[in-house]
Design a protein that fits this description.
588 residues; alpha+beta; 4-stranded antiparallel sheet
């Protein structure tokens, strides 16, 4: 086995450890090893609880322990260490693979270790760490790497150093050919009108009409977001259907002003089944979901010929709910009671998009309290999350694992605050958030296994985005934004590096869309086989319908080697991200 050990002097266990898209602050948080999807028991909930994560690669809270992963688990093959007391940062960069097999990266007690072939005593098999029983092949090779050691006074500096050096190894970062945006638009409009329109409930769903599960998820994966893009991109049919979709959204609004998260095809509220019979938890609702819907309501309104008074009132009611939540608790929490507005699960940056929504509320209603609350909440998130080097609470099904979705939401909020106030601190915060976000974005083109579907199609991973540290795949697009905030940063700072990141994220998505001319075929295992214990099962490969974009860009073997470079046959939120990109690209 080839092994290189790089020792970092003066480590005490208090260092900040980064494995991009894999571990933030070493993932040194409270742990609850639950099955997927993980949901808290009532006794595990609290308003002021510590950050709690699932059973992912991590160090212990005191800095002991070991993280062992491969380059496929990361957006950039790199380990970063910030030593606050020493005022320095150390980064160890390497390449993806040698002779078709990934390099391993590990950290333990101030030592970064590179191995080839990758060596792991424990391996992540969604959703748990398990003993690695795979037979190890011992071979020799020279592992290329570079060590970057520089003065660094803060997490802000640490992430700027990372951002500006994340391509240090000069790996292939060629962009895909820019797509025919108008052609993509037509495919997406046809797909959403034929497969995402729920006639009985009268709304554009976040799921397709023939899929299992909820027809609608507020915000997050598309409910009340896709309708904005369809309204802007389409014609009379899309406009009318989007108005009806907003009517459906307000049908889901709770007494507090917060929206319920789910509905069935009829438009009836679906509650979280685990809590449906539990007093006080029956109205369990996501802050992230409502925040997304709230922000995108104003984008709809800007396109509408006339906004019904009932929708104006419902939107104001939601704005007031967030202000009330902030004033009552000094935080927004992660999950709340949709009737009372009380926090059920606190902590997290789940409401990262809420300041952006409150900025829009200030502009739309002319009420200064909304801007004041937006600034207070945004500052709170910066000092309690971004400045600590991680954000949490974006996805609803990962407990509070570090994630990119809340980070990009905060970037959106900081750019909106700067746009309206022109206060320099918001531009500074936006830049730091962008640097943090960049750690979730794949910075090179991964080499997939020769027999994989993505190798057959010559897929490029540059610009794909890891959503979180639990679900260890990259994905086409940001969940669920376009990335336009990066373009604004470029316009304001005149630094082209932000535009380049925007181009990488937005241009790469369309490769992952199945079309009649270039179909994508699914893998031969059931969807979510690893989490369901079905890896031994083989199923027929299926052709994804035109317009489908699956969220999986599997570089990691978290779902076993069989799923690297492949997808399940499913329509995902990445299509909504693509729709949002189309609204901007076709407006240029």
């Amino acid at each position: 086995m080839s092994r290189i050990q790089i020792n970092i002097e003066n480590c005490t266990g208090k260092e900040y450890i980064l494995f991009p898209a894999c571990a933030y602050k070493g993932n040194q948080f409270d742990v609850l090893p639950k099955e997927y999807p993980p949901l808290l028991e009532p006794e595990e909930m609290g308003i002021n609880q510590n950050t709690v994560i699932t059973d992912v690669p991590r160090l212990n809270k005191d800095g002991s322990g070991k993280i062992e992963v491969t380059t496929g688990d990361m957006s950039v093959p790199c380990v970063g260490i910030f030593l606050q007391e020493e005022q320095k940062a150390v980064f160890v960069f390497t390449i993806q693979q040698i002779k078709g097999r990934n390099i391993g990266l590990a950290y333990e007690k101030g030592c970064v270790t590179l191995t080839w072939p990758a060596y792991r005593e424990l391996i992540y098999r969604w959703p748990h760490m398990v003993k690695n029983d795979e037979k190890y092949v011992d071979e020799e090779a020279e592992i290329p790497y570079q060590k970057l050691e520089v003065p660094c006074k803060s997490i802000e500096e640490f992430y700027e150093i990372f951002f500006r050096n994340r391509k240090l190894m000069n790996l292939n970062d060629e962009l895909p050919v820019e797509p025919a945006w108008e052609e993509l638009k037509q495919i997406q409009l046809e797909k959403h009108n034929s497969m995402n329109w729920f006639e009985e409930g009268q709304f554009y769903g976040s799921n397709t009409t023939d899929s299992e599960g909820n027809a609608w998820e507020t915000g997050w994966v598309g409910g009340g977001i896709s309708s904005y893009a369809l309204m802007k991109l389409g014609g009379k049919t899309e406009y009318e259907r989007s108005i009806q979709t907003l009517a459906h959204l307000f049908h889901l609004q709770g007494e507090s002003g917060i929206f319920y998260s789910g509905s069935n095809a009829k438009g009836e509220i679906i509650r979280e089944s685990k809590y449906e019979e539990m007093e006080g938890l029956r109205e369990f609702s996501s802050v992230r979901d409502s925040g997304d819907a709230f922000y995108f309501l104003f984008k709809h309104f800007a396109l509408m010929k006339e906004v019904p008074e009932s929708m104006r009132e419902g939107t104001k009611k939601c704005a007031d709910a967030f202000v009330k939540l902030w004033n009552a608790y000094g935080q927004l929490g992660q999950f709340v009671n949709a009737v009372t507005g009380e926090i059920l699960v606190g902590g997290s940056a789940a409401g990262g998009i809420v300041p952006a929504g409150l900025v829009s509320a200030y502009e739309y209603f002319g009420d200064r309290q909304y801007l004041d609350a937006a600034e207070e909440i945004a500052a709170f998130f910066y000092h309690n999350f971004v400045q600590r080097g991680y954000t949490t609470g974006g996805p609803n099904e990962i407990l509070q694992c570090p994630d990119s979705e809340s980070a990009f939401a905060l970037l959106e909020s900081y750019t909106e605050l700067y746009r309206v106030t022109l206060k320099p601190e918001w531009l500074s915060y936006a830049k730091t958030a962008a640097h943090l976000c960049s750690s979730w974005v794949v910075a090179y083109n991964y080499e997939f296994p020769p027999a994989s579907e993505f190798n057959r199609l010559k897929m490029k991973t540059i610009g794909t985005v890891f959503a979180n540290v639990q679900n260890k795949h990259s994905a086409p697009g940001i969940c669920t934004l376009s990335g336009d905030s990066l373009k604004k940063l470029c316009d304001w700072t005149k630094e082209d590096c932000y535009r380049r990141l925007y181009e990488e994220i937005t241009i790469t998505i369309s490769q992952y869309m199945s079309t009649e001319k270039r179909p994508i075929y699914s893998w031969d295992v059931p969807k979510d086989a690893t989490s369901k214990g079905l890896n031994h099962v083989t199923v027929p490969r299926e052709k994804l319908p035109a317009g489908f974009i699956c969220e999986r860009v599997n570089m990691s073997d978290w779902e076993t080697d069989r799923c690297v470079g492949g997808v399940f046959n499913g329509s995902c939120w990445s299509e909504v991200s693509n729709l949002l990109v189309l609204t901007e690209r076709l407006a240029q």
